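[agent] plan:
  1. take the single chain provided in the ticket
  2. run structure prediction with default settings
  3. attach structure tokens to the ticket
  4. add a short note for the reviewer (M.T.)
[agent] executing step 1
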Amino acid sequence: MISMRGTARGEHVWFSPQGLAIAPGTPLRFVNDDPGNSHTATAYHPSVLDRPLRIPEMAKPWDSDFLLPGQSFSSR
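[agent] step 2 finished; step 3 output follows
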């Protein structure tokens, strides 16, 4: 599980843990643990919002859309 948090006004947001290594095919679960802000979990990939590639080339890109407090998203 990857926790999503932020400051009260949303000017700083972060994931916990900040980095991890997983085996190919392992689904990722993002949970918005921020009590007052929405968050997104979006892969850096050219097919998603034309972002530069920052995930492994063979990884399937994802975009959670906005998650309200308490909502979660799985990359699979």
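[agent] step 4 note for reviewer: The chain has a mean pLDDT of 93.
[agent] ticket updated
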